[in-house]
Amino acid sequence: MDEQNPIQAVIPWLILIRAKGISPRRFNELLSEFCSPSNITNAETTELKRLGLNQDTIDSIVTPDWKLIEADLDWLTRSGNHFISMHDLSYPTLLGHITDPPLGLFVRGQVAALASTQIAIVGSRNPTPGGRRTATSFAEALGNNGITITSGLALGIDSAAHQGALNADARTIAVLGNGLDTVYPEKNRELLEKIIVKGAVVSEFPIYTKPLRGNFPRRNRIISGMATGTLIVEAALKSGSLITARFAMEQGREVFAIPGSIYNPLSRGCHELIRNGAKLTENIEHILEETGQLNTIVRQANQTSDCDGDENQGLDEYSKLLLDNIGYEPVTIDLLIEETGISTQLTVAALQNLELLNLIESLPGGSFIRKN
Which CATH number do you get for residue 287? Predict the structure, then answer.
C-alpha cells in the first residue's frame, strides 16, 4: 500500500467511491461542503439528506458493504498496488483541474509515472495496418523525446501506442474502465504486465468492477485529463476516441489529429476534428511545437526547488503572472484566465507548477488560494 495512505485514512475514500448512485462531480461538491471524506462518512443522516442525497446513497455511506471495503484493503496490501486520493501530493495535478476529477485512482506499477509529461494516443479498435504503424511510430518517437504515452489498453490503436512507448523504453500509462483485479481485454494481459514494469495501470473503479459500457466515457476523461494533449489516430465519426477528444477540448488541452484518405471511413473522425480546430498532425514536431511551452512548465513543476531567497525566483512568466493574481481568497481558474489573458492550456500547466512548488493550494470545485 502507498505509505501516504494509512489504512484509517483510506477507508473513508473507499466508502465514498463505492457509494451508490452518485457522480464524481457530486462528490467533489460534497468535499467542498465537508472538507474531508471522513466528515462525509461521519455525517448525520439528516445532514446528508438535507444536501439532497437519496436514501440508497445515504445508506451506502452510513452502512457500507464492509466485505467489499475489506477486499479493497486486501488488494492494496499486495506489492505494487496503490490508492492515490485526490488529496495526495502524488495525484496527477493536471487531472485535478478538470471539472469532475475522480476521487482517487487505483494504481498498479510506478506511481511516479503519473507526474510525468504525458501525451494521450487513442483511436480505432480495428485500425488499418497503416494506422497501427502510425500509432506505434508516433508513440516511439514521442517516448524517445521523454514523453509518457497514455492510452486505454484497448485493442488496435491503443495497444499499438503502448507498444511504441515500450519499444522506446519509455513510460506508458494504461487507464482502464474496470477494476484492476481483472484485465480487459484479456488478449492484452501480457502487454499490461509489461506496462506495469515501466509505467502504470490506472483506474478510478474499485476491484470487482466489470468493464461495463458506461464506464468507458469516464475512463476517457481521465486519459485526456492527465495529458497535455491528445493525438487521434484513425477514428470513425461515431467513435469513443472522439469522446476522448471532446473531453480534451473541454479540459483546455491540445487535440491533434492525423489526416488520411478521404475514402477511408476511419479518417472521417480525424477530419471532423481538424475542421473543428484540432491540429493537423503529420509528424511529432507538430506535437512538440504546440506543447513545448506546456512541457517546460510541467517539467519545472515536477522539480523540487531548494533555492533560497525570493519565492518567485526561477518561475516562468506565466506562473509569475498567475501568482500575482492569486490572493488569500479563493479564485476560480476561469477568473484567472479572464484576468491574465493566458490560454487555458498554459494556465492549467502553470497552476500545476505553483501548486507543486507549494505556493498555492487547490480547493474542491476548481478554486485556488495563495499559501504564503
Answer: 3.40.50.450
Shared domain for 284 and 318, answered yes or no, is no
pTM greater than 0.90: no
Q: Calculate the alpha carbon distances from 99 to 49, 118, 190, 225, 226 in Å.
A: 24, 19, 34, 10, 13
CA pair distance 94, 333, nearest whole angstrom: 13
Task: Specify whether 288 is located in the same domain as 224.
Answer: yes
291-347 pLDDT per residue, tens: 765 555 555 555 543 433 344 555 778 888 889 889 888 888 888 888 888 877 678
Question: At 230, is the secondary structure helix, strand, or coil?
Answer: strand
Q: What is the dihedral of CA 346, 121, 117, 94, to 10 degrees?
A: 50
Q: What is the dihedral of CA 222, 223, 224, 229, to 10 degrees?
A: 150
Stated as kind and residue range, the H or E segment containing 255 is: strand 254-257
CB 316 within 8 A of CB 297: yes
Contacts of 172 (CB under 8 A, 6+ apart): 139, 143, 148, 149, 150, 151, 161, 162, 165, 166, 195, 198, 199
Structural domain of residue 215, as residue ranges? Answer: 111-292
276 & 150 share domain: yes
Whole-angstrom distance, CA of residue 240 vs CA of residue 6? 37
- Write the CB contacts of 217 (distance below 8 Å, at least 6 apart in sequence): 240, 243
Rounded-to-integer distance, Cα 138 and Cα 282, Å: 10
> Grid coordinates in use for 343?
490560454
CATH of the domain at 336: 1.10.10.10
Same domain, 117 and 261: yes
Q: Are residues 271 and 310 in the same domain?
A: no
Report pLDDT digits (tens) over 247-298.
999 998 999 999 999 999 999 999 999 999 999 999 999 998 877 655 555 5
Place of cell 500545476: 352
222 with 247: CB under 8 angstroms? no
Residues 197 and 283 in one domain: yes
Calpha distance 147→120 (Å, rounded): 10
> Are 213 and 311 in a shared domain?
no
